[in-house]
User: What shape does this take?
Amino acid sequence: MASKKVSETVFEIANPIALSHGCFVDDVEFKKEGADFVLRVIIDVEDDSNGGVSIDQCELVSRALSDILDEQDPIDKAYMLEVSSPGIDRELKKEKDFIRFMGREVDVKLYKAIEGSKILSGKLISRTSEEIIIEADGKEIKIPASDAASVRLAVIW
Assistant: This one.
């Protein structure tokens, strides 16, 4: 089964499980890492003001999902299952991620330098399919979306 099909199938199985534990499936990845295949299910909560996803939620979703995957056996390869939160430095991938975290501090890693740097940090102002706009040091920086290798929430200590 192709990785995209596996991800879609697992999402359909995992999301009701996650919802029953007060969270939702944010992303599913199925890929080869080294000699092994990894099925990574990222769960999240709508309101992260209480610290986000708990370890207990990860464990509960993992156990229930593992049982159902063993029973239904939709993946024809051996794999390791990982259920985790997106982390404090979560990558913004989908449109809904950019909308949800508009106004937050982000780090944008670039394929090629802009203003002499391959990493730009600032407040996320907007994102379209063509560009990402951040505000840094009081000025707007327009970044071609195709130049952005990744956009992550900034970790501010």
